[in-house]
Amino acid sequence: MAASVGVQVSDEDRRNDESQSQPCRISEEVRDTPAKNAQKSNQNGKDSKPSTPRSKGQETFKKQEKTPKTPKGPSSVEDIKAKMQATIEKGGSLPKVEAKFINYVKNCFRMTDQEAIQDLWQWRKSL
To answer: Which keywords label this protein (predicted)?
Structure first.
């Protein structure tokens, strides 16, 4: 005599089991898709032929020359002083050590004139 176990199966579980046992219908378009993709792609998903010819790509690269930037002339000491003053008024600060100030002026304002840099340093000390 077999004893029945008290396991209850809900209607929802029965519906899920029934839906899983039925074969799914797949349209022909969906089945054909992997075959089409296999024909188009190569290993690593790349085509063996480039989309554009190399010679044409190299020609367009050579034609796209960069336009030269207009060289900015060295700003006058007065212009640089005005810019530094505006920086201070905005809440910024300027270097307080001479070596760091010289580096700041050389890099920020692209100035190489040592006399002008010393003039700016004297002005900076007076602030």
So the answer is: Chaperone, Cytoplasm, Nucleus, Phosphoprotein, RNA-binding
Q: What is the CA radius of gyration of the chain?
A: 38
What sections of the chain are H helices per DSSP?
Answer: 11-21, 28-40, 54-63, 77-89, 98-109, 114-126
pTM above 0.70, yes or no: no
The tens digit of pLDDT for each residue in 61-119 reads: 555 667 777 666 668 999 999 999 999 999 999 999 999 999 999 999 999 999 999 99
Q: Superfamily assignment of 96-127 in CATH?
A: Nucleophosmin, C-terminal domain (1.10.10.2100)
> What letter does residue 14 receive in the DSSP assignment?
H
67, 106 contact by CB (below 8 A): no
Please give the backbone phi and psi of residue 25, each rounded to the nearest 5 degrees, phi first. Answer: -95, 130
Reduce the DSSP state of residue 25 to 3 states and report it.
coil
The model's pLDDT over 62-74, given as tens digits with 9 standing for 90+, comes to 556 677 776 666 6
Determine the 3-state secondary structure of 77 from DSSP: helix
